[in-house]
Amino acid sequence: MPFLPFSHIIKLRKELRGTGAEVSTWGCDNYNDRIKQWSEICDVDIGAVVRISSVEEVAVVVRFSADRRVPLAVKGGGYSTGGYSSAKGGIVLDMSNLRRVHVEPASRMVIAEGGALWDDIDVAAAQYDLAVVGSTLGHIGAAGATLGGGYGWLSGQYGLAIDNLLWARIVLADGSMVITSADQSPDLFWAIRGAGQSFGVVVELAFRAHSQNHPVYAGTLLFSVDKLPEVVDFANQFERLTDGRQGFWFGFNLQPSSIHCSIMVVVFHNGDRMTAENFFFPLLASQPILNNTRMLPYDSLNSMLSVEDTLIRRSNFTGVDTTYHHEWAFGPRKRLSGSNVALPLDTDFIQSLYHQFDSFLMAFPEARDSSLFFEFLPNRQIRKFSNDATAFASRGPYYNVSSLFRWQTTNSDERFMEQGYMQIMRIDGMANWIIANDAPVRAVFGENVSRLREIKKKYDPYNMFGKWHNFDMLVQER
């Protein structure tokens, strides 16, 4: 469709008159701010950005878009690097004013609006000594992260975010609103737990919360590359040693004053310092250049890697400095890619991967803020459910790997997006979610695809919500 016609904009404003919705279009003073995404590769000219203030306004915009076949995207945190929260020439539903969180301590239930960030949920739950399985980053949208599965630091104890989802309120493609749960519209509830972005706009989610009345041990360790074999060895022992309360990442990135990549490790233990230090002793005893581990409240944990809150302390090889790096700030061009690996890791392969990554960053300094991380979160609780228990079909004995390439100029887009893909392609055990939303749905959802297609025909027959996953549907004629 061409750019949203001015006549449509007038009608949209008219339909939202008297509400709290804010419609921003080209020429408005706030237009450039409203279209901004975390990655500049997703900053496109949008016909209208509607910052809504109520669930009812969501329904109005969805009906408006459906009736006129106007492309529609939903923006929560805005952290997609595939353009899934942008709609060139179309309408973007900006959910950032729907961030209220309600906690019911007696029933241990947390209810969040569709625009809530994980930080909003963590802080609200902590007031009652509760916690919800959420993302490992606090500043991203809770709805989007949940609907795709939802790995978090507590997954080793309680499974994925979708395993702790009790119900959701959704605006469907025809503008109607339903509550879906194990008892209400159970087919839709099955589908949204893994493929939720493809069935409507989730405006409210209810989570099962868990007792969290003590601080956690977490932080970052920095190693020189000669310690990589020791880090890999610890990774290979992790599955055998963990009781579900631990998690750790390791990966490669450049420090501000360094020429070559160093090894960064993030550690987590849901318990006391002594137990944590015993568990992570092989790493702590390997002479890290930087040890930034500490006890902290759980509601601060998911902000630990987020520059908007608690910024990661960076260091150089001569000692600790106080430079902070805005890895997760809105701004330059970025692309996330991912895969997974099974243990044991091959040390020689990981070392070769390090050297390939390091050489690329040396050859292209524009990408020096890029990173590659292996994410070890215990998966026994996740694997308690079968792959057909929900739409999410990645419940296996493997761990996620992610690459994040950052660069500055548009003429480098093809090079760095391709490099991000190729870096992931080199990883042994690859292909569960290699640029998952660009992959064939069969690779993402496995045997669940046929059932998902049938549910899609029922709830979104015209494929209005098709930006994330393409179920190869024959779009029905109106």
From TrEMBL:
Belongs to the oxygen-dependent FAD-linked oxidoreductase family. This is FAD-binding PCMH-type domain-containing protein. It comes from Penicillium citrinum. Residues 42-212 form the FAD-binding PCMH-type domain. The lineage of its organism: Eukaryota, Fungi, Dikarya, Ascomycota, Pezizomycotina. The keyword Flavoprotein applies. The keyword Transcription regulation does not apply. It comes from the Eukaryota. PANTHER family: BINDING OXIDOREDUCTASE, PUTATIVE (AFU_ORTHOLOGUE AFUA_1G17690)-RELATED (PTHR42973), FAD-BINDING PCMH-TYPE DOMAIN-CONTAINING PROTEIN (PTHR42973:SF39).
